[in-house]
């Protein structure tokens, strides 16, 4: 069976749902090896998945966007003779895989939603209106990034895989100078949130221009539902919430069990990121808003009146 190399720029204490999805997909394509910037022994404790044979890492931790990650990837490809190299579609992983593709004299396919046994890659394009199929030339490795929520995660726990340390280190030299064309001046960790990650959440509460700068009621609803908070581009562009919260064509794709859309018109670019939610509840004061075309339940009303009533009812039922 051919080797499939899965790149995770870093691993935390547990595999995220999208990492599990990627390992599931990789398992259908060949023997799975993981390569990561995280230190090897720590990474192997996280990737205790039956289908994963080995974990490749550098001599020490290598943090994205260090170009040394590309050296690490290239060395791991040589070691494993991988014919398929996959990563999640994060900015840093896409950057590293694109550079790797140049070195391997192949192309890169980004934002894949499926890959079959013949290495045909499907993508959803033009805000989900079309599905395209692409394939790399025979004899060239397939390099692709995969969107979250594209496959159902199904992994079986196993023993920690073999750890292989490769002779690659961070490109920052001992005196702190950058060696590979990129210098990281400062790192600011994301503020820890009690809420689930947006792409992983079972419930998402999202707001748009209609919140008029005040996400307070939606945050309260999210807290009651244990939900992540998402947003339309109008809301993120206005600076009312971080860009990481943007759902849609140029934001993240979510596929939760419940998506509450409040004060969002439902433009095609927004739908592209949420239309596969199992149940969509729309709250909009315009009864002709396009979002009602895809909503399972709709409330025509002012979100500042409707949302507090939902919160109150949830609290009453919980009490
Ligand atoms: C290339 C491209 C990529 C894009 N990518 C994305 C993307 O990834 N994600 C995305 O979301 N958009 C994206 N957009 C923008 C998209 O086209 C829309 O402009 C955007 O989604 C509109 O956001 P909105 O629904 O919040 O605002 P609007 O369209 O202005 O809608 C606001 C809605 O709120 C309702 N409303 C107002 N006040 C209230 C109230 N008090 N209570 C209840 N309802 C109220 C209004 O009736 C209206 O329906 C993209 C556009 C382009 C061209």
From TrEMBL:
<dbReference type="Pfam" id="PF00766">
    <property type="entry name" value="ETF_alpha"/>
</dbReference>
<dbReference type="InterPro" id="IPR014731">
    <property type="entry name" value="ETF_asu_C"/>
</dbReference>
<dbReference type="InterPro" id="IPR014730">
    <property type="entry name" value="ETF_a/b_N"/>
</dbReference>
<dbReference type="GO" id="GO:0050660">
    <property type="term" value="F:flavin adenine dinucleotide binding"/>
</dbReference>
<dbReference type="Pfam" id="PF01012">
    <property type="entry name" value="ETF"/>
</dbReference>
<feature type="binding site">
    <location>
        <begin position="246"/>
        <end position="250"/>
    </location>
    <ligand>
        <name>FAD</name>
    </ligand>
</feature>
<comment type="function">
    <text>The electron transfer flavoprotein serves as a specific electron acceptor for other dehydrogenases. It transfers the electrons to the main respiratory chain via ETF-ubiquinone oxidoreductase (ETF dehydrogenase).</text>
</comment>
<keyword id="KW-0285">Flavoprotein</keyword>
<feature type="binding site">
    <location>
        <position position="284"/>
    </location>
    <ligand>
        <name>FAD</name>
    </ligand>
</feature>
<dbReference type="GO" id="GO:0033539">
    <property type="term" value="P:fatty acid beta-oxidation using acyl-CoA dehydrogenase"/>
</dbReference>
<dbReference type="InterPro" id="IPR029035">
    <property type="entry name" value="DHS-like_NAD/FAD-binding_dom"/>
</dbReference>
<feature type="binding site">
    <location>
        <begin position="232"/>
        <end position="233"/>
    </location>
    <ligand>
        <name>FAD</name>
    </ligand>
</feature>
<feature type="binding site">
    <location>
        <position position="209"/>
    </location>
    <ligand>
        <name>FAD</name>
    </ligand>
</feature>
<protein>
    <submittedName>
        <fullName>Electron transfer flavoprotein alpha subunit</fullName>
    </submittedName>
</protein>
<dbReference type="InterPro" id="IPR014729">
    <property type="entry name" value="Rossmann-like_a/b/a_fold"/>
</dbReference>
<comment type="subunit">
    <text>Heterodimer of an alpha and a beta subunit.</text>
</comment>
<dbReference type="InterPro" id="IPR001308">
    <property type="entry name" value="ETF_a/FixB"/>
</dbReference>
<comment type="similarity">
    <text>Belongs to the ETF alpha-subunit/FixB family.</text>
</comment>
<keyword id="KW-0274">FAD</keyword>
<dbReference type="GO" id="GO:0009055">
    <property type="term" value="F:electron transfer activity"/>
</dbReference>
<feature type="domain" description="Electron transfer flavoprotein alpha/beta-subunit N-terminal">
    <location>
        <begin position="4"/>
        <end position="184"/>
    </location>
</feature>
